[in-house]
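Good morning,

Attaching, inline, the backbone tokens for the sequence recovery test we're adding to the shared suite. The designed sequence is right after.
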């Protein structure tokens, strides 16, 4: 911009009043630092900076820990994570928002089997910032044989506040739809794991309930727990209620 300097004896132009905000009597002033440099993002008030970072880093859909062939081609997060590379201070401020305000999941019910391995791809400090995990599990898949290992990794997530385990079957809708739609409240809690009979089935169910109970008890900070589609609906509701009532009873 070119600024024209008037000679001292030249007539001064008519005074122009500063622009006013429509809801204020005070003139709008540019936020310029004392040195005259343009304002930096870090010079904003903390509340304003948090709002901006949340807008950039919070996804309306769950974030995948790992993408593979089963990931829907239409899956998008619309996150702007490049801000983490701006400088160390912004990265430090952004990580708790990125990991703490988003829900993390896997690309399909089948890949929940490798949730513990996928979780290791997240740096240790960032893993402790994760607050919400949602896993959809296909009962016909082999996850439940590896459930103790997955549960052990979940218990290590000291910051976890919300854990939702939804058991699905081959007849359920496409996983891509599930990533963009929350399950209906009050949905079926049993009859979706297939029929299991005999002493082996009873032993398996007993072992699963033990692992799930220890998982919920081990997550000291857990405030929200859902176990949908489990064969023992009464057991699932009991765990959910125990967490909902503040781990009492």
């Amino acid at each position: 911009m070119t600024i024209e300097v008037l000679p001292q004896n030249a007539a001064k132009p008519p005074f122009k009043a500063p622009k006013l905000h429509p809801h204020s009597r005070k003139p709008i002033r540019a936020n310029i630092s004392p040195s005259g440099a343009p304002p930096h993002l870090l010079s904003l008030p903390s509340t304003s900076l948090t709002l901006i970072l949340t807008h950039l880093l919070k996804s309306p859909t769950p974030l995948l820990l790992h993408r593979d062939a089963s990931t829907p081609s239409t899956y998008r997060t619309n996150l702007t994570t490049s801000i983490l590379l701006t400088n160390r201070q912004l990265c430090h401020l952004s990580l708790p928002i990125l990991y703490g305000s988003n829900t993390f999941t896997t690309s399909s019910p089948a890949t929940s089997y490798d949730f513990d391995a996928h979780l290791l791809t997240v740096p240790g400090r960032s893993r402790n910032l994760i607050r919400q995990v949602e896993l959809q599990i296909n009962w016909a898949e082999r996850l439940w044989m590896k459930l103790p290992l997955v549960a052990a990794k979940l218990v290590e997530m000291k910051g976890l506040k919300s854990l939702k385990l939804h058991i699905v079957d081959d007849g359920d809708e496409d996983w891509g739809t599930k990533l963009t739609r929350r399950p209906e409240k009050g949905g079926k809690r049993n009859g979706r794991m297939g029929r299991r009979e005999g002493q082996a089935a009873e032993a398996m169910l007993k072992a699963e309930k033990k692992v799930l109970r220890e998982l919920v008890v081990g997550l000291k900070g857990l405030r929200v727990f859902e176990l949908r589609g489990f064969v023992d609906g009464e057991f699932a509701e009991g765990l959910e209620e125990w967490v909902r009532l503040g781990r009492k009873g």
